[in-house]
Design a protein that fits this description.
The complex is a heterodimer of chains A (197) and B (798). Chain A is α+β, with helices and mostly antiparallel strands and 197 residues long. Chain A has a single domain, classed as 2-Layer Sandwich (Alpha-D-Glucose-1,6-Bisphosphate, Chain A, domain 4). Chain A is 41% helix and 39% strand. Chain A has a 7-stranded antiparallel beta sheet. In chain A, strand 4 and strand 5 form a beta hairpin. In chain A, helix 3 packs across helix 6. With 798 residues, chain B is an alpha+beta fold. Chain B folds into 4 domains: 169 residues, 2-Layer Sandwich (Aldehyde Oxidoreductase, domain 4), CATH 3.30.365.10; 196 residues, Aldehyde oxidase/xanthine dehydrogenase, a/b hammerhead (Aldehyde Oxidoreductase, domain 3, Alpha-Beta Complex); 171 residues, Aldehyde Oxidoreductase, domain 4; 204 residues, Aldehyde oxidase/xanthine dehydrogenase, molybdopterin binding domain (Aldehyde Oxidoreductase, domain 4, 2-Layer Sandwich), CATH 3.30.365.10. Chain B is built from 21 helices and 28 strands. Chain B has a 7-stranded mixed beta sheet with strand order 3-5-1-12-9-10-11. In chain B, a hairpin with a 5-residue loop joins strand 16 and strand 17. The chains are: A alpha+beta (197), B alpha+beta (798). Chains A and B meet through strand 7 and helix 3 of A and helix 10 of B.
Chain lengths: 197, 798
């Protein structure tokens, strides 16, 4: 399945880029990270527990970052496996100046599901993903507008294990991409799981 | 007394009391001491190598007894799941039958393919532990559609089947009818009109109300295995278990299929799960139970239909059918299910003559492996696909020739004086009155007032359409020798024992299996009628190989025509023996004894003895001809039919289509069926209703959908739309009767008719409604989305 979206943000591209890779902004969106390890150049492995509603599934996540081109574009490739099935995805994210001082953010993601995830959830995937993206960008815009402190979201959902582990992780600049990859690949899976279980 | 509940009476179903009060006894209701639970690890990939199964983490989970794999199964000498019907390609080579292990050994070929089984003390422990089994898959390219699988460069699913072609079959084969192909081609060359259609017969999921379940109990002391399982044919399962897979002596295996909540074909086969729990119980020495959850049924129960067909009909200048050419690609799935290769071939092509005198017919079928759940028989099994192809083509011809579809059919009907009628595709039709059925259906539909109804619909802003179908099907499988020549690897007779008790009550032990059809009632009616005893004094026992004689079970609408006839013949024997006993008691010659209404009477006198007294004499043989006659009154008859039976019928359907939303509303549905003689009209009507609901489900709602790679998308009731009461109109059901001469009851079978005739009637009606908008073709299911898209495509000139 392919998902495309576009978001206008009334902030300069460099600000958007910086916010996009700010762990304080992104971190809160990543649920239940249990482990995180680097397994090679631009390659990472994570274990995530998705505990949303009645669903509890442990995903083994693998992520690769390809072609970061700050502040213009990057590409993420990731996969997540759980006993309930698997998901795979790639996302191309692009930031363009809109000529009026703002930024147009566009993304094109390809997602594939397998096993029980596909069996029970495929029909909902695009709707859920769209909803997640909309929520994400709404929140993201409010952060940029200064209406919502970046730290708030983290604290509201924040588990301390996540905070401690991830703060170390985000000292590495490249790993910031991982957070976004996890958001895109796993967020979709976890959220629609909660609705279909 | 028999008259109250004898043949032809709508006796209330005796089994319903326990069904509707929750007192039925299904497999999952049975629990044994020390029983453990199985949960299957299934492939999430449509096609992958299985490089290894790591059970270390799962074995550490609480309550886990064992994690068993395909390698373990192989090491124990368990054989592959058998194919029960061999098909031969037109070049004479046998269809490729890959070895289908119960648990995958080296490769998985569909999503849901069992890979390992976890056995634990509770179901939830087994389930949790199954999530900890780590299978190392090497993913392979995969393909779900049969036509895509035939394309050059498609992923190869079985090494022994190049191009994924399991068989390339023709009917009739050149060996039997060397000129069939040439004559058919000639008919098309000389035709005044040719109609050609490309049709998709959508894949369906069977969805029996009770999911499959199996409980196996191996007694380590006696070496006896008892299997409780959701089966339509427990003896067949025992035979396959003993000879093909588990390889145990038959006398050491008892298979019990207790109350079973619907089958529709999906519970015919010997499945991997059933085999695995038997093997696990034998290996572990504890009873092992598996009960499918609904989403496993979606993956694991054999699915059905999934044909892509090109059908061409040739007509002469007077609109008489002169030739029919059919070319079908049938999706068999990742492995062959037991009857998988037979359904799109020998259960399909021989019905393509329909009810018409088409002289030349030639059929080719390619059976194709894909990375999907295996397909097999489902209510109708091949005949719905045949009927759909023929009846869509006939309606299209009527449109092109601007003829009334009823009149075009009438012009081409086989006539009543032509029976038995030898069709050009190898069937000998027993009897029928097609004009009579057509006229009955027309009358019930108020056929001639349609234009007024159409006008009224228009006033309401709706497009009204009417569609017709005239089906014929083959029931009563089967003459064993004919089936054997066509590749069947089993006999298809049926058996019944009539056990008369000393007090005159009767137990019937039948090889047929009731999983909702009402045998306990209808079979008892036959006994009540024949022996003149009270209906309530007859008990029908089925489903337990420990109690019943070796029978073949229930499928293909065969129970009454074959199993009922076996019962009839066993009653003949009881009656005959009773006559000899009565002759002795009455001091008369047996030839002078009449048996009517439960009394043996010396003809023309008032000297009589009741059936009950005869039964008592048989078991208390104080005054009994022991020198000539054994005591006791119990008889068994096996019946192997001489021919199939051929129910037929005319269905007329009216729909209203909302052109804004594409919603199709069924306004009216008339079914005029010929099932031969009828034992219980209410049971028959119930069978017709159920069949129609399933046929309408296929036509309008149900669609089993995979991604191109083979991920099942319609894997729950969120996405697979089953028909509900509010999707259906009040059916108008009537019957005409031309008894079959091929069994003494004159019965044909009614279980599948609705599912066969409804789809083309509905789609013909939908197309009739949409024709003014320029829509010429639509595939099933005609969902609002599909109808709306067809309307939009026609509007934009597509």
């Amino acid at each position: 399945m392919e998902i495309k979206g576009e978001q206008s943000l009334a902030h300069p591209r460099e600000h958007v880029w910086a916010a996009l890779i700010d762990p304080e902004v992104l971190g809160a969106c990543v649920p239940g990270c249990q482990s995180f390890e680097r397994v090679g150049e631009n390659q990472y492995r994570a274990a995530m527990q998705a505990d949303i509603g009645p669903v509890s599934a442990r995903f083994a996540v693998e992520i690769r970052i390809a072609d970061p081109d700050p502040p213009r574009s990057y590409r993420l490739e990731g996969s997540a496996r759980a006993p309930v099935g698997f998901g795979r995805g790639q996302a191309d994210v692009r930031l363009e100046e809109d000529g009026k001082g703002g930024t147009s953010l566009s993304y094109a993601a390809k997602l594939q599901l397998g096993g029980k995830l596909a069996q029970v959830g495929s029909r909902l995937l695009s709707g859920i993903t769209r909803k997640i993206a909309a929520n994400f960008f709404e929140r993201f815009a409010r952060v940029l507008d200064g209406k919502l402190p970046a730290g708030t979201a983290a604290k509201r959902t924040g588990e301390s294990q996540f905070g401690t582990a991830m703060r170390r992780v985000f000292e590495n600049r490249v790993l910031r991409w991982v957070a976004l990859a996890v958001l895109i690949v796993l967020g979709a899976l976890a959220f629609f799981l909660s609705l279909t279980w | 007394m028999s008259g109250e509940m004898g043949i032809g009476v709508s006796a209330p179903r005796t089994e319903d009391r326990r069904f509707i009060t929750g007192r039925g006894r299904y497999v999952d209701d049975i629990n044994l001491r020390s029983q453990q639970y199985a949960w299957f690890v299934r492939s999430p990939h449509p096609h992958a190598e299985v490089r290894g199964v790591d059970a270390a983490d799962a074995l550490k989970m609480p309550g886990v007894t064992a994690v068993l794999t395909g390698a373990d199964m192989q090491a124990d000498g368990v054989g592959p799941l058998p194919v029960a019907w061999g098909i031969t390609s037109r070049d004479g080579s046998p269809a490729h039958e890959p070895e289908f292990p119960g648990l995958a050994t080296d490769r998985v070929r569909y999503v849901g393919n069992p890979v390992a089984v976890v056995v634990a003390e509770s179901r939830s422990q087994a389930r949790d532990a199954a999530e900890m089994v780590n299978v190392d898959y090497g993913e392979l390219e995969s393909v779900a559609s049969a036509t895509a699988a035939l394309e050059e460069g498609a992923p190869q699913i079985h090494e022994g089947a190049p191009g994924n072609l399991c068989f390339d079959w023709e009917w009739l084969p050149a060996a039997m009818a060397p000129d069939a192909r040439a004559n058919t081609d000639k008919a098309f060359k000389e035709a005044a009109h040719v109609v050609s259609l490309e049709l998709v017969n959508n894949r369906l999921v069977p969805n029996a109300m009770e999911p499959r379940a199996s409980l196996a109990d191996f007694n380590t002391a006696t070496g006896q295995l008892t299997l409780y399982t959701t089966s339509q044919n427990p003896h067949v399962n025992r035979l396959l278990l003993c000879t093909a897979t588990l390889k145990m002596p038959e006398h050491k295996v008892r298979v019990v299929a207790p109350d079973v909540g619907g089958g529709f074909g999906s519970k015919i086969y010997h499945y991997a799960e059933e085999l695995t729990v038997c093997w696990a119980s034998r290996r572990l020495g504890v009873p092992v139970k598996w009960t499918a959850e609904r989403s496993e049924s979606f993956l694991g129960d054999a699915q059905a239909r999934d044909h892509v067909t090109r059908v061409e009909l040739a007509l002469d200048a007077e609109a008489r059918f002169t030739g029919l050419r059919v070319d079908t690609v049938a999706n068999l799935g990742g492995w062959l299910s037991a009857f998988g290769p037979a359904i799109p071939t020998v259960f399909y092509a021989p019905l393509l003559a329909g009810v018409y005198r088409t002289p030349n017919i030639y059929v080719t079928v390619k059976g194709v492996f894909t990375n999907t759940t295996p397909t097999d028989a489902y209510r109708g099994a091949g005949r719905p696909e045949a009927c759909y192809a023929v009846e869509r083509a006939v309606d299209e011809a009527a449109v092109q020739l601007n003829m009334d579809p009823a009149e075009l059919r009438r012009l081409n009907f086989i006539q009543p004086d032509e029976f038995p009628y030898q069709s050009p595709v190898g069937q000998l039709y027993d009897s029928g009155d097609f004009e009579g059925c057509l006229d009955l259906a027309r009358k019930l539909n108020a056929y001639d007032e349609f234009s007024e109804r159409r006008r009224q619909s228009e006033v309401r802003g709706k497009l009204r359409g009417r569609g017709m179908c005239f089906y014929i099907e083959a029931c009563g499988a089967a003459p064993s020798q004919a089936a054997g020549q066509l590749g069947a690897r089993a006999g298809l007779y049926e058996v019944a024992t009539v056990r008369v008790h000393p007090t005159g009550s009767v137990q019937v032990l039948t090889g047929s299996h009731s999983h909702g059809q009402g045998h306990e009632t209808t079979f008892a009616q036959i006994v009540a009628e024949r022996l003149g005893i009270d209906f309530g004094n007859v008990e029908v026992v089925h489903g337990d190989t420990g109690e019943i004689p070796f029978g073949m079970g229930t499928f293909g609408s065969r129970s009454l025509a074959v199993g009922g006839t076996a019962l009839y013949k066993a009653i003949d024997k009881v009656e005959e023996k009773g006559r000899k006993i009565a002759a002795h008691l009455l001091e008369a010659e047996a030839d002078d004894i009449e048996f009517t209404e439960g009394e043996y009477r010396v003809a023309g006198t008032d000297r009589a003895v009741s059936f009950g007294d005869v039964a008592l004499a048989a078991y208390v043989p104080h005054n009994y001809p022991l020198q000539e006659l054994e005591p006791g009154l119990e008889e068994t008859a096996f019946f192997d039919p001489e021919n199939f039976t051929f129910p037929s019928g005319c269905y007329i359907c009216e729909v209203e289509v909302d052109r804004q939303t594409g919603q199709v509303d069924l306004r009216d549905f008339v079914a005029a069926d010929d099932f031969g003689n009828i034992i219980n009209p209410m049971v028959v009507e119930g069978q017709v209703h159920g069949g129609l609901a399933q046929g309408i489900g296929q036509a309008l709602l149900e669609h089993c959908l995979y991604t191109p790679e083979g991920q099942l998308l319609s894997g729950s009731y969120m996405d697979y739309c089953m028909p509900r009461a509010d999707d259906l109109p009040n059916f108008v059901v009537a019957t005409r009767c031309t008894p079959t001469p091929f069994n003494p009851l004159g019965v044909k079978g009614c279980g599948e008719a609705g599912a066969i005739g409804a789809p083309p009637a509905v789609i013909n009606a939908v197309l009739d409604a949409l024709r003014p908008l320029g829509v010429r073709q639509i595939d099933m299911p005609a969902t609002p989305q599909a109808v709306w898209q067809a309307i939009e495509a026609a509007r934009s000139g597509g």
